[in-house]
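Reviewer comment 2.1 asked that we show a complete input and output for one of the modelled complexes. We chose the zinc ion case, as it is the one discussed in the main text.
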Amino acid sequence: MSAECVFCKIARGEMGELLYEDDLSAAFADLNPQAPVHILVIPKVHAESLAHVEDEKLLGRLLAVANKLARERDLNGYRVVINTGKDGGQTVPHLHVHLLGGRTFGWPPG
Ligand code: AMP
Ligand code: ZN
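Response of the prediction step:
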């Protein structure tokens, strides 16, 4: 884990509040929510982006957790987003899955 990475600190319980955690992942509310439900699901181990991870068990877990958290919230559909790299719009360099719900989303995304 990186000492300076904010999402590593959150995953370690040193900052903010976790909504969920297991052996591989943690989830918490986005600081600047873009929908009534906006949760970030991250790996506990530091990984810069989706492009830096090949562990299929870990990647599968992140999606399974997003699905579980969505199901618990009884959403009428939801969106999962993984911004990756500069052109992908990623601003925090620790892989995170956005779970967005509670409103209708447009397509294509901006
Ligand atoms: P992205 O643009 O995909 O890298 O998304 C980064 C997300 O992290 C944004 O939605 C931010 O609002 C969110 N964020 C940044 N810092 C924090 C923090 N300390 N706690 C919770 N969410 C954060
Ligand atoms: Zn990190």
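The chain is about 20% helix and 20% strand. We note this here for comparison with the apo prediction described in Section 3.2.
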